[in-house]
Amino acid sequence: MKEFVFYNPTRIVFGEGKTSEIGKYVSGQKCLLLYGSGSIKQNGIYDRVISSLKEQGVSFIEKSGIKPNPVISFVREAIDLARKEQVDCLLAVGGGSVIDTAKAVAAGFYYEGDVWDYFINKARITRALPIYVVLTLAASASEMNCGAVLTNEETKQKFNISAEALFPRTSILDPTNTYTVPRRQVANGSVDAIVHVLEGYFTGTYPHTPIQDGFVETLVKTIIATTRKIMESPTDYDARANFMWAATLALNGLTTAGIGKGGSPNHMIGHSLSALYDLDHGASLSIVLPAWLKYNQQTLARKLTHFGQVIFGQNDAAATIKAIEDYFHEIGAPIRLSEANIDRSEIQKIAENAVGLARKWGLKSYTQDVIARILELAV
Amino acid sequence: MKEFVFYNPTRIVFGEGKTSEIGKYVSGQKCLLLYGSGSIKQNGIYDRVISSLKEQGVSFIEKSGIKPNPVISFVREAIDLARKEQVDCLLAVGGGSVIDTAKAVAAGFYYEGDVWDYFINKARITRALPIYVVLTLAASASEMNCGAVLTNEETKQKFNISAEALFPRTSILDPTNTYTVPRRQVANGSVDAIVHVLEGYFTGTYPHTPIQDGFVETLVKTIIATTRKIMESPTDYDARANFMWAATLALNGLTTAGIGKGGSPNHMIGHSLSALYDLDHGASLSIVLPAWLKYNQQTLARKLTHFGQVIFGQNDAAATIKAIEDYFHEIGAPIRLSEANIDRSEIQKIAENAVGLARKWGLKSYTQDVIARILELAV
After folding, report:
1. Which of A8, A264, A272, B206 could form a disulfide with A353 if both were Cys (CB 3.0 to 4.6 A apart)?
2. pLDDT tens digits for B27-58?
3. What average pLDDT is seen over chain B?
4. Does domain A11-177 have CATH number 3.40.50.2300?
5. Over the stretch B58-77, which tens digit does the pLDDT of each residue have?
6. d(CA A251, nearest CA chain B) in Å
7. DSSP state letters, A20-73
8. Would you say residue A147 has pLDDT above 90?
9. Is B172 a residue whose pLDDT tops 90?
10. How confident is the model at residue A329 (pLDDT cuts 50, 70, 90)?
11. Rounded CA gap, B215 and B248, in Å?
12. B160-163 own/partner pairs: CB under 8 Å, 24+ apart
């Protein structure tokens, strides 16, 4: 095993009905409540949160309208509001886009310069307002990690931040809050969580990591099985619960601790697809992963074969990649650029955009040419 | 999945050479350094810790002599010393017995009454001095949980405490610090870690917990494989590293989150064997587990069979129990009371002692008679 530091102080409060405990956790603080397009007002989550806050006498203001690929302009507005209203904490009610927005606001609150500086490594996050979460979409694991990804609409960059101050204090995971998540978002979450664990599984530099590999295989098995159940029966509590916890564990530091310096090349390329075409994060990954695996098929042959055996009962690398593609198609996720209406002629432009993140992440082997060749395999 | 709260704020610093970073973590505080019989002075760990403390200008006092089954009288002395010297934190250099002692001292420091009150639920722990750990023995997972078990020599009770204030702040896990752990202690650690995960695996009340089960199976496979390697080659870094991390993950809350109200009946009975006969903790468990499994063989038949298939390639419950016994014997752990020189005539006395813990833990079905019948299966 390679050396590592594992640290994750987020408190997870998991179970049906736990939404109504949120007031207890933020008690005594003035909150900025953040959420998305307003679906939480239709499915009752908003009402449950508000009544819990009122019950505990929590004072709060709110700002809504966060988009699925959240943008930095919204963050700037929210920072101004948070300062003007002198809030003590942020309460994110939503999925990854809302939580990531809350993290950027929490850090930006204490910074005199422009918050985007954090994303381009011009400034380092050392302080942030406390962040609390009521999760409504299982996918990103942002509820139990210290990272966030935002898009700068002007520069067309989808970049990330990461700092210990950004771990949510408490995240409420109530599986019933995801009963109304539509099929397309379930598919996106399923792809996202699977790619989260597979990034480390296939890029970790240490040759023998039985604990991490076993955990990843367990999570992928669980995610595939529960996605299928959710597609059939959206209110299957156990399926929603296992899917939710698996997605959280998929990117909370556990499966990558000790694997050595890996990387997230699929996310790197996928982020460019979202930045340029506002493509769903999950859809960007279901397109990139098979292409990336094909590009690396020979190097990864042994591990791909093992993975295929354990997960799909397949016996070689090519069949494993095909099985992953088949699974993505089965749940309605695209696996080719054309399915997202992105023409082959765009590849150089995408590759040029992705190189920016490759440089930021120190993935030196990912030149524009290499990225373009990977994308050619997604045509 | 059942509802749960998962919270674990301990920072794990894992890898070869990390011992020399301990000074950085306790910097600016006056430490009470606790350790055991002094083996750390022979294998160089003591010197590495001291030089790291001195490098950072950390002021410290020390108290050694903690026994494998740690006792409350030592804790009382250490509390007096900690108060007299006005220390700011505790630094445990050792395995479970040293860490558990540090936890009891850390809590007792702030309590006016006798520290044993915490163990018999006469008082509740709300504050504790910060605890830091340099782990030298992989077994208990005390380095990443908030529990401790101590023996009261006068009352012959081996009882536990548990409180959030007792999570170590930082635990250094340097696998090379375990190179000199002798075979008997490796066997004890192997048994302890396996029983830690199996307690939940076999007692969890929720019928279908694929994530937790998969994690447990991964950990058990890893522990068995690495124990065998360590027995052959005590300085196999990878084996020591995987064993160490697996043992930590075996009782840090991860594998029990969501399984429902389980219990630790094997530990409950094992603790009595240690309290009455000063038997090694691991040895007490390798004797109790097969007997407990036999007692519950019919109820657990399906899960035992599945476990046997995954871990040992066995196909029924009885064969699985036999495979566990064979594994324990293979690594030199006792599986019968007679192997620990405990006569059958002692069974009622042991059962009477164990009922005390059964009551404390709310394991109502474990009457003296039931415990005696389980122990009969260990004759």
Report:
1. A272
2. 999 999 999 998 999 999 999 999 999 999 99
3. 96
4. no
5. 999 999 999 998 999 999 99
6. 15
7. GGHHHHHTTS-EEEE-SSSHHHHSSHHHHHHHHHHHTT--EEEE----SS-BHH
8. yes
9. yes
10. very high
11. 13
12. B160/B119, B161/B103, B161/B104, B161/B107, B161/B118, B161/B119, B161/B125, B163/B107, B163/B124, B163/B125, B163/B126, B163/B128
Is A80 near chain B, with CB under 8 Å?
Answer: no
Is B255 at the interface with chain A, CB within 8 A? no
Tell me which residue has tokens 């307002």: A129
* CA-based nearest distance B264→chain A, Å: 22
User: In which residue are the tokens 């042991």 written?
Assistant: B350
Domain B182-376 has CATH 1.20.1090.10: yes
Q: Which residues of A touch B5 (CB under 8 A)?
A: 11-14
- Residue A115: which of A77, A141, A158 has the closest Cα? A77
Query: Which pLDDT score is estimated for B261?
Result: 83
Average pLDDT over residues A139-166: 96
- Do residue A4 and residue B15 have CB atoms under 8 angstroms apart? yes
Mean per-residue pLDDT, B161-176: 98
Rounded to the nearest integer, the mean pLDDT of chain A is 96
Measured between beta carbons, the chain B residues lying within 8 angstroms of A225 are 210
- Write the residue in B4, B13, B217 that is nearest to A5 by C-beta: B13
Residue contact B211–A249, C-beta within 8 A: yes
A6, A15, A245: residue with CB nearest B211: A245
- How long is chain B? 379
| B238:A15 CB<8 A | no
In whole angstroms, give the CA distance from residue A299 to residue A344.
26
Cβ contact, residue pair A241, B7, below 8 Å: no
* pLDDT exceeds 90 at position B207: no
The verdict on a CB contact (< 8 Å) between B211 and A225 is no
Is any Cβ of chain A less than 8 angstroms from the Cβ of B164? no
Structure token pair of residue B347: 């069974």
What is the homologous superfamily of the domain A183-376 according to CATH?
Dehydroquinate synthase-like - alpha domain (1.20.1090.10)
Q: Does B5 touch chain A (CB under 8 A)?
A: yes
Every domain of chain A and the residues it spans: 11-177, 183-376
A206 band by pLDDT with thresholds 50, 70 and 90:
confident
pLDDT band at B206 (very low <50, low <70, confident <90, very high): confident
Mutate to test the interface with B, among A2, A6, A144, A217 (most CBs of B within 10 A): A6
